[in-house]
Amino acid sequence: MTGTLVLAGTPIGDIADAPPRLAEELAGADVIAAEDTRRLRRLTQALGVTPKGRVVSYFEGNEAARTPELVEELVGGARVLLVTDAGMPSVSDPGYRLVAACVEKDVRVTAVPGPSAVLTALALSGLPVDRFCFEGFLPRKAGERLSRLREVAEERRTLVYFEAPHRLDDTLAAMASVFGEERRAAVCRELTKTYEEVKRGPLGELAAWAAEGVRGEITVVVEGAPERGAQDVSAEELVRRVRVREEAGERRKEAIAAVAVEAGLPKREVFDAVVAAKNAGA
Question: In 3-state terms, what secondary structure has residue 167?
Answer without folding.
Answer: helix
